[in-house]
Amino acid sequence: MIKAVMVMNTQGKTRLAKFYEYLPVEKQQELIRGVFAVLCSRAENVSNFIDAESIFGLDSRLVYKHFATLYFVFVFDSSENELAVLDLIQVFVETLDRCFKNVCELDVVFNYSKVHTILDVMIFGGQVVETSSSEIMKAVEEISKLEAASNSIALIPKSASGWRSR
Amino acid sequence: MGSQGGFYQSKEFLDLVKSIGEARSKAEEDRIVLGEIDTLKRRISDPDIPKRKMKEYIIRLVYVEMLGHDASFGYIHAVKMTHDDSLLVKRTGYLAVTLFLNEDHDLIILIVNTIQKDLKSDNYLVACAALNAVCKLINEETIPAVLPQVVELLAHPKEAVRKKATMALHRFYQKSPSSVSHLVSNFRKRLCDNDPGVMGATLCPLFELITIDVNSYKDLVMSFVSILKQVTERRLPKAYDYHQMPAPFIQIKLLKILALLGSGDKQASENMYTVVGDIFRKCDSSSNIGNAVLYECICCVSSIYPNPKLLESAADAISRFLKSDSHNLKYMGIDALGRLIKISPEIAEQHQLAVIDCLEDPDDTLKRKTFELLYKMTKSTNVEVIVDRMIDYMISINDNHYKTEIASRCVELAEQFAPSNQWFIQTMNKVFAHAGDLVNTKVAHNLMRLIAEGFGEDDDTADSQLRSSAVESYLHILGEPKLPSVFLQVICWVLGEYGTADGRYSASYITGKLCDVAEAYSDDETVKAYAVTALMKIYAIEIAAGRKVDMLPECQSLMEEFLASHSTDLQQRAYELQAVIGLDAHAVESIMPSDASCEDIEVDKALSFLNGYIEDSIEKGAQPYIPESERSGMLNISNFRNQDHHEASSHGLRFEAYELPKQTLQSRIPPASLASTELVPVSEPMYVRESYQTTIVPSASSDAGSTELKLRLDGVQKKWGRQTHSPATSTSSSTSQKTVNGITQVDGSNTSNSRTRETYDSRKQHVEITPEKQKLAASLFGGSSKSEKKPATGHKIPKPSSHVVEKSHARKSSMEIASEKKASFQQPPDLLDFGEPTVKSAAPSVDPFKELEGLLEPTTQFASAENHGSTAAATKSPDMMGLYTETPAGIYDKDDSDILSGLSNPPVTNMFGGTTSTQVAQSSKGPNLKDALEKDALVRQMGVTPSSPNPNLFKDLFG
Question: Region labeled Disordered — which residues (chain B) (predicted)?
Fold first, then answer.
C-alpha cells in the first residue's frame, strides 16, 4: 500500500503532504525533513528509488521524481512495484497538467483542495484505485461541475462565479 | 498558473503563500505563520462568517498545519463544515477533517453521525466524500456504526462509489479483521464487477487477503489467469491503456497475485505459464511501464513452480535490465537477479560484470541493492571478497540505520561461511571496531559464545587455536584509542577466559592490560564490570593452578577505587574479587572452574532449596502461599470485571438509530446468509439499475447449481471481451499450450541456458572492461562456476582471443600470429596473456583443465594467509587481488621461460622467473596494459588458470 504522498519544492517547502496512516503533525514534519535531506543529497542521473527504511521504518521504499521545481515523492511498501509507482507519479503529474494546463508549482499551492481531489480519485485509503489519467480527469471534472452547481444554489449567485473552483 | 481566470482564494491567501515563499529563514517563516494563525483564530470564531469565507479559512488552516504548526483550534470548525448542505463546503470539510483528525480523536464522535447520513445520500459525491472520511476516521469501535451503509454502497450504480466502498471494506478488514470477516466474500464478487476500474481496485484487497491465506483462494487461479489474458488481449477499454500498454497497473497487480498463488504449487503454476509467457513476448521493453510489467513477470516466474522456458525469458529480461543505461532498470535488474538466483544460481555468472558495475556505481540506492544481492549469493568460496567489500562500504557510510544492517549481515555471513578462524576473528574485529556501538549486543554475545564453544567440530586444538588467535588480536587492538563499548566487553571477556590459557602471556601481563582498559574507559560502568570479572577469572585460574598471586599495584589501586564505587554492581564485583583472592586453591576451583563458560547451569525454577526455610516459617505460623490461579475469591472478581468490560466495549456506543430498529436489523443480516447465492450483497432494488441487472442475472442463474460462491469466468469474459469470444476456445488454446510446455520441459535447462549465454556474450564482447572489475568478478562468481567452465568455455570467449582456444591444434600457430601482431605494436609482453595455452602444450599428457582446476583450489585457500605478506606491495590494490597473486609455480616450467625469452624481455624473465616476469612485462606495457589484462582476465574466466598477478601490485615495486 501507499504510505504517503508528498510534493515539495527544491527548497524543501512542502507543497502537499498526505499520509495514509495517521501520524502526528510533528512526526510528519520530521519525515518530510528526512526525505528532503535525502533528496538533496542525490545526484542527477541516478535512480529514482531510495531505500526509505531508515526514515519510515521497515518495509518502506520511496520513489521520487523531479519536475522543474518540484519533487513528487511516493512512499510505499513491498506490495507495490517501484517502476509502476514511478509511472503512477507520471499519471498524477500528467493529470495535474491536464487539469491546470501547464501545471506549475503555484498551481499546486493555490489549488490545494483540487490537488487533493485528484489524489483522492487515484489513491484511496493507501490503495491505488485509478490509474487512467482520462478517467481521473472525468471524475474530477464531474466533481467540479457538481460542486459549482451546488454552490450556485446554496449561495448568492453573483458571488458564485467569482470564486468557484476550477 | 491562473490559467482559468484567477485563483479562487483571496488575495490574503496569495500574500501568505508569497511571503512564506520569500521567507529567508525558518524563523521568519514561523513568524509569518504564527501571525496567520492569530488572524485565523480571530476570524474563524466569528459567528456570522459567510460560508465561502469559512471555506477559505479552513483551506488556509490546512496549509498552516502542513507547514508544521498547530491548527487544532480550527478542527471543530472543519467538523462543522461537514454538516453543511452545500457540496463544496461539505467536501472541503471532509478534506480538512481527514487531514486533521485521526481515528481516535475526540471529535470523531461528532462526525460519525454525519458520515452515516452522508453514506446514504442520493448525491454520489457526498457518499464518496463520506467514504473518504470512513477510510481515515473510523476505528474498530465505530466500524459497526457505518458498516451496513458501506455494504449497501457496494452495489451502488456508480462505479466510483462501488470502488470506494470496496476499499473502505478492505480498510475495515485491515483495522479489525473479525468485524468484517463475514463480508470477505464481497471482494470476490467485486472481481466480477462489470466496470474494470472496480475490478482493478478489488485486486488490492484480494492481494492482501491472499498474502495472509493463500490456500482459500486457490480456486481463483483460473479467474485471475483469464482476467490477465483478457487484459493482455486488450479487451479492456482504451482508457486503461497507458503508453500503449493495456492496463499495465492491473497486469502488475494480477502478476503479483499469481506469484503468490503459484508459489510451490505446480498445478496452479501450470495454468499460468502460457499467459506469463505471452506477456514476456508482448511486453514493450522500451517504456518504463513495460519494464515494470516485465519485472513483475520475473518476480512471478521466480515465485511460481519453475518452468525452464519462462526462466529463460526471465533471464533474458534481466540481462536487458542490467545492460540498460537507466539506473532504475539496473536497480530492478539487480533485484530481479536476486530473486531468480534462488532458482537458477548459474545465471548470476553471466551478469557478473554488470553486478560489479552496480557495486561501484555512485548511486547509493543501487549500491545497496547490489550488496543485498551479494548477501544472497554468498558462499564459502566468495565470502571473503564479499564481506571485505561490505565492511569497506560500511566504514564509508554515515547512515546509522544501514550501517547497523550491513554490520549484522557481515556478522551473519562470517559466522556462516568463515573459511578460517583467523579470518573470522579479524572480520569480527573490523565490524566491531567500526560499527561496535551499532551492532546488537546479541551479536557480541554470539561472538563470545562462538569463541567459547568453537566452531562445533570436536577438534579441540582448532578451538584453542581460535582462542589464542583471538586473544592475540585483542591484545593488539587494545592499543587503539576509542574502542566501542560492546567490543571492549567482548575483549575483556575473552581475555579473562582465555588470556592465559595457552601460556603465552603471563597473568600479570593480561591483568595489566585489563587494568589499563578499566582506567582508560573509566566512564563506562559495563566495561569496568567486565574488566573486574575478567581479573577475577585470571586470578582464580592462577590460584587454582597453585601459583602465587601478586596483585599489580595499579590493579590494587583500581580495586580500592571500585570498592568505594557508586555503582553497587561494581562494588560487589570488587568485593567478590577480594574474597576470591583470599581463598585456597580447592575452594577457588569449585567456585570458578576454568573454561566452564559453556557448561549448562541448571536453574532450579521451583526454588526447592528454600523448602526447608518455608517449612520452618509455616511451623512458626506463617500463611502458606496460594498460587494466583487457585485464589478463588480473586478469580471471581476479576472474571466479573472482565465480562463487564467486554460488554462495555462491545456496546459502548450505540450508533444504530433508535427509531427504526427493523431497518438496521435488515441491513446487518444480509452478508452472511445471502452471500452464498446472490451476487449483490445487499438486495436493494432501488440501486440496481436495469443494465446492471441484466449482467447479473445470467451469471446468478448459472451459479444456482453449486452451493458455493464461485466466479464465473464466462461472465467476466463477456463483460470486456468482444462478444464473439467464447470461453470454450480459450480453454482449448490453453490446453494445447500446455502440451507445448510439456515438451519444452523435456528440453531441459542445459540447452536453454547455453543459448542465452551465447546471445548474451555475443552482445557484450565489445564492452570495455577494466581489469580490476574482471578480477573482482572472478573472485565473486568464479567459485560457483568452476564445474561449468569446462564445457561452456566455447561460448564465453570474447572475440579477440577466441581463436586461440577454439581449436587446440591450431593454438600454437594462432598464438604466434597474435604474438607477432602484438610485437609490431611494441607490446611484446602481451604474449604472456597466452602463457596458459603454452603451459598446456608443455604438459600434454595430463588433461590441462583438470590439472589447472586442481591448482585453483589451493590458490584461493592460502590466498588469505598470503595476503598479509603481499599487502605491503599491494598498497594500491584491494585485498582481493591477492587471490591471484599466487601462481602455482609448477605451471611455469622451462618451456614457459623459453617462450618468454623469445619475446623482447629476456633479462626480466631470468631475474624473476616465469611468474614475476609476467607482471613486470605487463606493467611496462604502457597504454595497452588494460587491453592485455582484459584478455588475460577473460582467459582466466574461461577457467584456465589464475595466472598473472595484479599489475598494479608490481608497478610500485618496479616503477
Answer: 718-829
